[in-house]
Design goal:
It is built from 12 helices and 10 strands. It has 349 residues and is α+β, with helices and mostly antiparallel strands. The protein has 2 domains: 86 residues; 242 residues, 2-Layer Sandwich (BirA Bifunctional Protein, domain 2). A hairpin with a 3-residue loop joins strand 3 and strand 4. Helix 2 packs antiparallel against helix 4 and helix 5 crosses helix 10. The protein starts with a helix and ends with a helix.
């Protein structure tokens, strides 16, 4: 079906809904993992480059239309159901009320979903891979040879000798995706997931943390494409007035490599405690994919080029939601996590 056909069918089906179960079934049909709208996102890679933006916008508009209509119908049906119960049941309004605790969205999951949403609108696929990884994917194919300091046992959790380990980054997922492409298919993926490194847990460090990495491999890709992509993501997360800048850096798997800074969304560049009075905040590492990485993954660097970037989900969430201790994300103390919803409301305002 074409987009307009799916949209018209969707609206007709929504209009005919008269109970909550049927409404939920319809939500699964369109927004579930194998839903019609969800599948449209995966088809964007087959759309000509000049049509991708318009295609992505139409899919997002249809998703928003479905969600808003769904919410309206759900509210109406729930109200009708409640009125029926009130009409048929006797309620003793003199009874004392019961305080019911409610949960709040998980901050990390919410942030990752926001990044996934904006990346999917640009044609990216969300992929994952094993957390127990092989050395060749975690290091060798990322241009990190034997003996490199990044392999030090103080940094990496090795499970069997030096061949099997807990992945120290989500970059192996990118390598596996490129290998599936067999050097012939453009790659556009985002890889969120858990990573592990030997580190002492404190307010800003953890032996387990979440990374959000992105990879694009195609023809004639440059740093300017990377800059534009990063701009779109950070404006979605921190506001339209936030600016980005690149500073030279060094990573084994990119050349050239850059550190990504954003203008401080709190003080607007004037200087505050969040940006350490510099007006800028470092949020990511990125760069143009190293020719060796392309070559080892089956892509001819004379024909193909690409960029990669990586955010720390905890760091991004700490900045966005004004959280000063990373351990709060994994704490089961309800006195801490109950404040997440308040921080969310405060930042969204």
């Amino acid at each position: 079906m074409k987009i307009e056909e799916i949209k018209n069918t969707m609206l007709d089906e929504l209009k005919s809904i008269d109970d909550l179960k049927a409404l939920n079934d319809l939500r699964v049909k369109y927004l579930g993992k194998k839903g019609l709208i969800t599948e449209l996102n995966s088809e964007i890679k087959n759309v000509p480059n000049e049509e991708k933006k318009a295609f992505g916008q139409k899919v997002n508009e249809m998703r928003t239309l479905f969600q808003s209509t769904y919410d309206e119908i759900k509210t109406r049906l729930e109200e009708e159901e409640l009125n029926q119960k009130l009409a048929s049941e006797a309620i003793d309004i003199s009874l004392p009320s019961t305080k019911v605790s409610i949960g709040a969205p998980n901050i990390l999951e919410k942030l990752i979903e926001e990044v996934e949403e904006v990346c999917m609108s640009m044609g990216y696929d969300v992929v994952d891979g094993p957390e127990i990884e092989e050395d060749k994917y975690n290091f060798e194919m990322l241009n990190i040879p034997k003996g490199h300091p990044a392999r030090d046992a103080q940094d990496t959790f090795y499970l069997e000798g030096e061949e099997i380990l807990l992945r120290s980054q989500t970059s192996p997922v990118q390598v596996r995706t490129m290998l599936k492409g067999k050097g012939e298919v453009p790659v556009r993926v985002i890889c969120p997931g858990k990573t592990y490194r030997r580190d002492d847990d404190d307010a800003t460090h953890s032996h387990q943390f979440m990374q959000i990495e992105g990879l694009l491999v195609d023809k004639d890709i440059s740093l300017s494409d990377l800059k534009g992509t990063i701009d779109v993501i950070v404006k979605k997360l921190f506001g339209e007035d936030v600016e980005t800048r690149f500073r030279p850096s060094y990573y084994q798997f990119t050349e050239p490599s850059v550190e990504v800074d954003i203008s401080c969304f709190n003080c607007k560049g004037k200087g505050c405690n969040i940006c350490k009075h510099t007006g800028w905040i470092t949020i990511a590492g990125a760069g143009v994919v190293h020719p060796n990485v392309l070559r080892m993954s089956g892509y001819d660097p004379e024909v193909w080029s690409g960029f990669a970037f990586g955010f720390g989900a905890e760091r991004m969430a700490m900045l966005k939601y004004d959280i000063n201790d990373l351990r709060v994300f994994y704490n089961t103390d309800l006195r801490e996590v109950k404040h997440f919803d308040r921080r969310e409301l405060k930042c969204d305002d």
